[in-house]
Every structure is written in C-alpha cells, then in structure tokens.
Write a structure and sequence with these properties.
The chain is mainly alpha-helical. Helices cover about 75% and strands about 0% of the residues. α5 crosses α7, α6 crosses α7 and α8 runs antiparallel to α9.
Length: about 280
C-alpha cells in the first residue's frame, strides 16, 4: 500500500513532474527583494536619526496640542473666509489656465493626432517635467519671480496641473475609436472638423472628468501654498502657527477639512452624472 503522500506512478521510463509555486531562481529573486527591503528600512531608520525620547511623549503632546485648538477663536473667522475665497479662486483660475495650456500639448503627445516622433517626445518631456515638480516648489519659484501673493499660487497650480491634465487627455485621445475618424477622413472633412466631430464626442466625458478631478486636487493643494507665501488660506494658517495661536490654527484646519469634503462630494456627484 502506498503512503497517502506518495505520487501516482508515471509512465514507464518517465520522471513524475512535481508542481511548485516558484522556481528556484524565482525564490532566490524574491529572497533578495525581501532582504533589500529590510536593509533599506534599517538604513532609513538610522539615517533619519529617530530619537526615542521624542516618541515617548508624542501622544501626550498631541493631545495637548488638540486641547489648545479648542474652542476655536471665531473672531479670526473673517480672515479665514477671505483666505478661503482666495484659495478657491486660485484653484479655479489655475485649473482653467492649466487646461488651456495642456490641450495643445496633449494633441502633440497623442500619437494618432501628431505623427512626428520628435513632437511626441517634446510633448511628453513637457508633461513629465510638469508632474515631476511639486506644487510647493513651483510656488517657491513663482514667489521669487512675482513676489508673494495669489498670482504665484495660481501659476504654481497651473504649471503643476499641466502634466496631469495633458497626460490623461492624450491617453483619452489615443483610445478614441478609429471608425468615426476614418469615416470623416474618407468624406474629406478638414482636420478641425475631424477633431470636433470625430475625437471630441468620444473624449468629452473624460475631459470633464479629468478637469473636475484636477480642480478637486487643486483646492487641496492651494490650501497649503500660503505656507510659502503663495496666498490663500494657508497664509492665515501660517500666521496662526507662527504666533502659536492654536485656537486660530484649529479653526483654519477645520475649515480646510470641511471645504475638502464638500468639494469631494460635489465633484464626485458631477463626475457620476457625466460618466452616465
């Protein structure tokens, strides 16, 4: 009688094949990845020089900080409202400007619109360059050029958003169905008519969805640009923290949180209707 764990006998002269989840090479590779991850974590912890004494009282310090934020200083509310309005204007104008700049770059990046490899490469470089620089870095750059204020924040939001909007729009154009485009081309339609009648009806839902999603993101990002002097509600937050007015800082943070939740609800509702 064979044991329960024994394999059934194979054909005469042939070795019985055993199923394994990973090959020996794959096991070695996975082990090396795990080892590299552990080394990276240990190296990172040692590099940032975590001081255990600061961690022990972190919960108590956090509770004390939140206790200082309550109750809110409602006398500070008018300045919060002014900063909030400026933040919404910055996010909106920055999004509109980014769309205006991103559309032609997206047309150059879409391979089914622009057949030149050189122009495609230049457009992709511009899109990657925009996305690779954080909005705070853009804000610092434009504050140095134009000085503190909402103009620097608007330009920072716009230049940061070009890469996001342009990349997604270019991908949507490349995914357009070829049938309507070929029909219009065969009928002798000019290039502008092919764009407006062939590509735009297919790209329009994605376009509005991307625009709303980016505006939602820009509201969040513009809320903190004031920390580097780019205007908005972040200026009020920076002033409150620097002066250790934690009840005012708590009011600003609560306002930012409420606005972000509201914009998320509004944009999600509009996007769901567009996609349907």
């Amino acid at each position: 009688m064979s044991s329960p764990n024994s394999l059934p006998a194979g054909p005469a002269g042939k070795e019985v094949r055993r199923w394994t989840r990973f090959t020996p090479a794959e096991r070695v590779g996975r082990s090396l990845v795990y080892l590299a991850a552990v080394i990276a974590i240990i190296w990172s912890v040692k590099t940032i020089e975590v001081i255990p004494e600061f961690l022990y009282d972190a919960p108590a310090q956090t509770l004390d900080l939140f206790a200082r934020m309550w109750p809110f200083d409602w006398a500070f509310w008018p300045k919060v409202v002014d900063g909030l309005i400026e933040t919404l204007h910055t996010a909106t104008l920055g999004t509109i400007l980014s769309i205006i700049l991103a559309v032609p770059i997206a047309l150059l990046a879409a391979r089914n619109i622009t057949r030149s490899v050189a122009l495609n490469s230049i457009a992709h470089v511009l899109l990657v360059s925009s996305r690779s620089v954080n909005s705070l870095i853009w804000a610092l750059l434009f504050v140095a050029i134009f000085g503190p204020g909402a103009l620097a924040g608007t330009l920072a939001i716009a230049f940061r958003s070009i890469g996001f909007v342009g990349k997604l729009l270019a991908e949507a154009i490349e995914e357009a169905q070829k049938g309507p485009i070929e029909a219009l081309t065969a009928a002798g339609a000019p290039p502008f008519a092919i764009l407006t009648k062939g590509y735009w009806p297919q790209v329009e839902p994605s376009f509005w969805s991307v625009a709303l999603f980016r505006w939602d993101i820009n509201v969040r990002e513009s809320a903190v640009l004031g920390l580097v002097g780019a205007g908005g509600i972040g200026v009020a937050l920076d002033a409150a923290i620097n002066n250790l007015y934690w009840d005012q800082a708590g009011l600003v943070l609560a306002t930012i949180f409420a606005v972000i939740v509201a914009t998320e609800i509004v944009t999600s509702s509009i996007r769901s209707r567009i996609i349907q």
